[in-house]
Amino acid sequence: MTAVHLTPREREIIQLIAAGHATKAIAAQCGLSIHTVKHHVRSVMGKLGLHTRLRLAAHWRQTGNGGAHPRVRDRGDAMLTGEP
């Protein structure tokens, strides 16, 4: 099984989606454009093979904020823990 590498920004955006925030609110909170947030969401969904934000949020919650899923790793190949 190949590891999926997520950037810190991608993890931040997934956490906000899982918390129920809309794209516009995520953009404002992160100081990004709506377009950039949408780009990150598409990138993560593509990496994880998911097709909806709902599935993305559910995946994030079910895997302990990404930490328990063997395919999700950060750039340093350390398992995600959901902690800063």
CATH architecture: Orthogonal Bundle
Structural class: mainly alpha
Spatial sequence of strands, sheet with the most strands: 1-2
| Bulk shape | globular
Helix content: 40-55%
Task: Let me know the largest β-sheet.
Answer: 2 strands, parallel
Spans of at least 5 consecutive residues with low confidence: 67-84
| Percentage of residues in strands | 5-15%
Broad CATH class: Mainly Alpha
**CATH H-level superfamily title:** Winged helix-like DNA-binding domain superfamily/Winged helix DNA-binding domain
Question: Which terms summarize this structure?
Answer:
disordered C terminus; mainly alpha; 84 residues; 4 helices; Arc Repressor Mutant, subunit A; single chain; two-stranded parallel sheet
